[in-house]
Specification:
Length: 169
C-alpha cells in the first residue's frame, strides 16, 4: 500500500498568514534497495564449495527498502548463474551453479556479485569479488631446501604465495 504525504509550509502570526512555500512531498512507496557489500568470498577445497558472506545494505533517508531476497551472481568463463536466497541470510555456500546440478569446477576463476531485491526492483550489483579455486599439484620433495617463501597482497586484495626451491629432487 502506497502512502503519499504532501505538506505546504507557511508562516502565520497576528498580522495574518504568510506566503505558502514550495510543497514538500514524501512517499512511502516501495524503494529499490542499495547494493549489499561482499565481506568475504573463498573456496573451501575439502568441501568443494565457494562461501560468500555479505553485509545487508544500509537504509538511507531516501531508501528504506524492504528486502525480499538476495541474488548471488556467479560468473565463470561460460555464463552467469544466479542463486536466490531469503532476506534473512547474509552468507551462502555454493556447490552448484545451476538447477541442472552444474558443480563448482576446480582450477577455475569465478567472479561473484550480490544484489538485493525489493518489490520495487533490484539494486545494482555489489562490487565484484574474484575467487580462484586453483588446486596445486602436490609433489614429494626428498631434499627439502626451500629458498624463499613470499606472501604478498596485490592491489585487488588477493593474496599471492610464491615458493622458490633452491633444489628439489
Amino acid at each position: 500500500l502506497d502512502t503519499i504525504f504532501n505538506v505546504t509550509v507557511f508562516a502565520s502570526d497576528m498580522a495574518g498568514d504568510g506566503t505558502p512555500r514550495n510543497e514538500v512531498g514524501r512517499t512511502d512507496a516501495p524503494q529499490i534497495p542499495n547494493a549489499p557489500t561482499i565481506v568475504m568470498a573463498f573456496y573451501d577445497v575439502s568441501a568443494n564449495v565457494i562461501t560468500v558472506m555479505w553485509q545487508a545494505p544500509s537504509p538511507t533517508a531516501s531508501c528504506t527498502a524492504n528486502i525480499m531476497n538476495y541474488i548471488i551472481t556467479v560468473m565463470d568463463q561460460n555464463s552467469p548463474a544466479n542463486i536466490t536466497v531469503s532476506p534473512d541470510m547474509t552468507s551462502v555456500d555454493i556447490s552448484e551453479l545451476a538447477s541442472d546440478g552444474t558443480s563448482i569446477v576446480t582450477n577455475e576463476q569465478y567472479t561473484i556479485t550480490v544484489s538485493a531485491s525489493s518489490e520495487a526492483g533490484s539494486s545494482g550489483p555489489s562490487a565484484p569479488v574474484i575467487v580462484n579455486n586453483f588446486i596445486l599439484q602436490s609433489c614429494v620433495v626428498t631434499s627439502p631446501s626451500v629458498g624463499t617463501v613470499n606472501v604478498s597482497c596485490d592491489s585487488s586484495h588477493q593474496i599471492q604465495v610464491t615458493v622458490t626451491c633452491t633444489s628439489c629432487t
